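To whoever is on call:

I kicked off a structure prediction for a single chain this morning and the downstream step that reads the tokens threw a length-mismatch warning. I double-checked the sequence; it's 131 residues and nothing unusual in it as far as I can see. Pasting both halves so you can look.
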Amino acid sequence: MPFRPLRRRELPQRTLKVVDALGLAVATVIGARAAIDAQVTPVAVLILAVLTGVTGEVVRDVLCGEFPPLLLREEAYATAALAGAAAYLGLHWAGASDTLAISVSAGLVFALRMAAVFRDLHLPHLRRVPG
């Protein structure tokens, strides 16, 4: 019986992008909540939440051998995490319930990421001014 190599199927890219956006949303909210629980400054909450969300993506890209990592592409990734972290922080300060703060901020991250992926939204390019 001859050896037949395993068939390689293309991964469902659309599904992977949706799951990736969910992972970013969840990790960002977890980072924001942990930072608030640690009683750090608001700026530190934002930084830690974004780093928590983005680190998962970098690890995934390294393990999957993707280059350049998604973080270095022109898509709005860290910006979505920052918006979600800011929403969580603002809702927490306003006294909103944890359920509401988590739902709104995670939903915001997810929606922004999906808009960036499926509507081909990008951050503006920075250009050097001569002189």
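Update from on-call: the warning came from a stale cache, not from the record. Cleared it. Sanity check on the structure: The radius of gyration is 18 Å.
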